[in-house]
Amino acid sequence: MNRALTYLLAACLLWSCGDEDADTQAQPQDAARADSDQDGGLALDSATDAAPAGAGFIIETLIDQRQVPISGASANVNFEAPDDVVSLTVIVHGDPDGWFGIESWTDGDGTQLAAPGWSEAAGNDRGCMTCRNFTGLLQNGVSTTVAPNRDTGAVHPGTHRLALSGWVDGFAADSVTVTVIAKRGPAAPETGVIDLNFYFTGAQGWTSDSVQGDPYFAACVQRVNELYGRAGITIGDMTYQDLDPTLSTVSIAEGEETLGALMANSIASQTDGLNIFFVDQILTGEPDFPAIPGVAASVPNPPYLPGTVASGVAIGTRGPLEVPPGQRFLDPPAIGQTMAHELGHALGLFHTSEYDEVSHDHYDDTPENDNRYLMHADGTGAIISDEQGRALRANPAIRHPE
User: Fold this and answer.
1) 213 in helix, strand or coil?
2) Separation between Cα atoms, residue 81 and residue 180, nearest integer Å
3) Which fold has domain 38-184?
4) What is the layout of strands, in order, in the sheet containing 291-292?
5) Does residue 343 contact residue 24 with C-beta atoms inside 8 Å?
6) Which of 354, 362, 385 is nearest to 128 (CA)?
7) The predicted structure's pLDDT at residue 51
C-alpha cells in the first residue's frame, strides 16, 4: 500500500486561504461485563476505566490495549456496550510497520455496521462507503473507527462482535492490540469542547513560550474556534511542548518514516486532547506538489493513545510565516485554516470531494465539488455540515462540560 498516497489524501493542499462570504454561508443546526466467547469471540473482562465527560456524559474504556491472537487471518473480539451508549471507538494497533483494521463489526442489535468482505466490494477502494458505518482501509500502525460517523451507523447496547485484521511484511500478524472506548450519555451531544496539545520544533522561530504572546498564533487559534463553533465545538485547554529541532522537516514520500517519528513524540500531557505538531516543511516527493501545508497521520487519530505513528497532525509554517509580520494575511490566518482542516481529519472526517471531482465522502449533506466546505480537498471553506458535526461530536476526544 502506498503510504504517501494515504497521507496525501488526508492533506489540505493550500498555502493561503480566504472566507470572504463566511457570514452568508449555511450554518449547522443547532459497564462492560464478561462475554461468553461465542462465535470465536474472546471473552473480556469488565471495563477498565471511566471518567466524567460533563453534562451527563462519561468516557469509559471497555477494552484497554488488549492483545488478541490472530487465528485464521482474523482476531475475533466481543464486548458489551452499555445501555446509555452514545458512540463507540475501536482502535486496532500493533507493529508500527504493520497494517491493521476492522474486517467486520456487528452492532448490539445484530445489524452489521461493517459487513464481512466489504474491502472487496465496488466503490470501497478508499474505505467502506457501502457500510452502515464508514470503516477505513487498513492503516499503518494504528487504525481507528468511530461509530456513529454517519446517520446510518447508530450504535446500540448489547453484545458487539468485531473481526480484526493485522499484517506485517505481507504476512498475517501473530496478534493485534485492541482498545474500545464508549461515550455514554443521555443523547447525542449537540455541543462540545476540544483540548489541544501543541508541539514546536523551532520552525520559523515558534517555541512553546513565544507563541503564547504571538498575535498571529492567537489569531490562528481563534480561526479554529470560529469554524468549529459552527458545529457547537469550542477549544478548551491548551498545552505547549518543545521538541528537538531536527524534527522540523518531515516527509511523507514513499519509504519515509519521519512523519511517524514526529507523531511518536506525543505524550500523555495535561489533556486528553488532539496533538498538533508545527514543523518547517512537509515534503511529499511529488514534483507537482513538493510541499503541503498540513497532514493528518491517520483519519481519525487514535484518541487517548499518544506516542503512536498516528497520534497527531502536522502543520507546515514556512509559507505563511516567511511573509513579514506586517504583511501577513490575517483574515483568516492561513495556518489557523489549515489547523481546522487537519483537525477535521484527526476527528474522523475525510475530504468532501477530492480534486479529481470523482472521489467524495460518505455524507448525504455535503454537496460534491463545493469548496465552500471546510473539508473539501482545497481546505479553504468554512461550512461544516450537520452530519459532519454529529460525527465530530461523537468522537471521544470531544468532551461535554456542564
Assistant:
1) helix
2) 10
3) Jelly Rolls (2.60.120)
4) 249-251, 281-283, 291-292
5) no
6) 362
7) 65
